[in-house]
């Protein structure tokens, strides 16, 4: 058994290794990852300055270290393939986590596979896989979205496309966009439950839990600092056959009928229409405010101050 294990872990020629690196806590580095980085012919790193700190910490002096980031990935891919063609081995690392997961690496791996060379993953730390199990939401199934667009209009478009999904949704976000992204999620998804993981595995690791409005209010009061993972519970199952009866019916008429036929409050009717039509809460809410004295009128003011400012 030990011989087979040693053979499996031996560095192979003409092979690209995808090596996960710590997302914060250096003790998350695996023994296998260290072995690979010590023994491969070439290490391609997203940022050689950051990677040198990591390598130096573990006493590793790579045979050759080159940069491979978004703006030179095509050129570096050619160099890596040339090295593999000579029978050399190569490792690809990013600043934190697994290459190709919201980090450079996809183009390299795609080209290496197309050329017929082997690709071997060396698993390890991942912000995605650290945050999702800790969220308390179902991971079967889940949808990993990564970073949302920086512009609000494009961001809302993506969120609207996801609004009818029953999957748990996982996002990465930067501190300067946290508040706007949470606000857009609140307006599109309504008040679903969510979890924000901050600075995972680091000294100031934190999980903030609550509905999207509560999360938005928390980060409106507390300056977002660090790196974030946002997990949002999936939408409720929608019976699409029920949607057919609303074809050609205006949103306002649908709201009134739901309040009358199903004795829903206005707030409940808004939520139902959002789900059935895949619309943001903000859109339906605006129409609902214009309905006066309708059946099911409630005294909740439809949470008018929640998420609309």
Characterization of the model:
By secondary structure, the chain is α/β, with parallel strands linked by helices. It folds into 3 domains: 12-125, Cobalt-precorrin-4 Transmethylase, domain 1 (3-Layer(aba) Sandwich); 128-232, Tetrapyrrole methylase, C-terminal domain (Methyltransferase, Cobalt-precorrin-4 Transmethylase, Domain 2), CATH 3.30.950.10; 240-303, no CATH class. The protein contains 12 helices and 10 strands. A 5-stranded parallel β-sheet has the order 3-2-4-1-5, with helices on both faces. Strands 6-7-10-8-9 form a 5-stranded mixed β-sheet. Helix 7 (152-162) packs across helix 8 (178-189), helix 8 runs antiparallel to helix 9 and helix 10 (251-261) crosses helix 11 (266-277).
- Strand tally is 10
Q: Structural class of the helices, strands and pairings?
A: alpha/beta
Corresponding CATH architecture of the largest domain = 3-Layer(aba) Sandwich
Overall tally of domains: 3
CATH topology of the largest domain: Cobalt-precorrin-4 Transmethylase, domain 1
Which range best describes the helical content: under 10%, 10-25%, 25-40%, 40-55%, 55-70% or over 70%? Answer: 25-40%
Mean pLDDT, to the nearest integer, reads 89
Placed side by side, the strands forming the largest sheet appear as 3-2-4-1-5
List keywords for this structure.
309 residues; Cobalt-precorrin-4 Transmethylase, domain 1; Methyltransferase, Cobalt-precorrin-4 Transmethylase, Domain 2; 3 domains; five-stranded parallel sheet; five-stranded mixed sheet; disordered C terminus
């Amino acid at each position: 058994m030990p011989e087979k294990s040693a053979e499996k872990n031996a560095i192979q020629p003409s092979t690209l290794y995808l090596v996960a690196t710590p997302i914060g806590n250096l003790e998350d580095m695996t023994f296998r990852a260290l072995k690979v980085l010590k023994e491969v012919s070439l290490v391609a790193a997203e940022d050689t300055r950051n990677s040198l700190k990591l390598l130096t910490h573990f006493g590793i002096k790579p045979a050759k270290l080159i940069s491979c980031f978004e703006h030179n990935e095509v050129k570096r891919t050619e160099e890596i393939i040339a090295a593999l063609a000579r029978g050399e081995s190569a490792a690809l690392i990013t600043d934190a986590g697994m290459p190709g997961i919201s980090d450079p690496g996809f183009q390299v791996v795609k080209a290496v596979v197309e050329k017929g060379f082997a690709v071997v993953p060396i698993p390890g730390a991942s912000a995605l896989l650290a945050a999702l199990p800790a969220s308390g939401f179902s991971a079967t199934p889940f949808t990993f979205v990564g970073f949302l667009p920086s512009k609000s209009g494009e961001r809302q478009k993506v969120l609207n496309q996801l609004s009818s999904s029953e999957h748990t949704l996982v996002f990465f976000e930067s501190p300067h966009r946290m508040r706007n992204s949470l606000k857009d999620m609140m307006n599109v998804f309504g008040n679903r439950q969510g979890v924000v993981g901050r600075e995972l595995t680091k000294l100031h690791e934190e999980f903030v839990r609550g509905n999207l409005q509560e999360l938005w209010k928390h980060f409106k009061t507390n300056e977002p600092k660090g790196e974030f993972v946002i997990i949002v519970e999936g939408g409720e199952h929608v019976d699409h056959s029920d949607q057919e009866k609303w074809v050609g019916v205006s949103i306002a008429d649908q709201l009134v009928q739901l309040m009358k036929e199903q004795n829903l409050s206005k707030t409940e009717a808004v939520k139902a229409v959002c789900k059935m039509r895949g619309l943001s809460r903000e859109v339906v809410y605006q129409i609902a405010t214009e309905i006066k004295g309708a059946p099911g009128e409630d005294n909740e003011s439809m949470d008018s101050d929640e998420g609309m400012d």
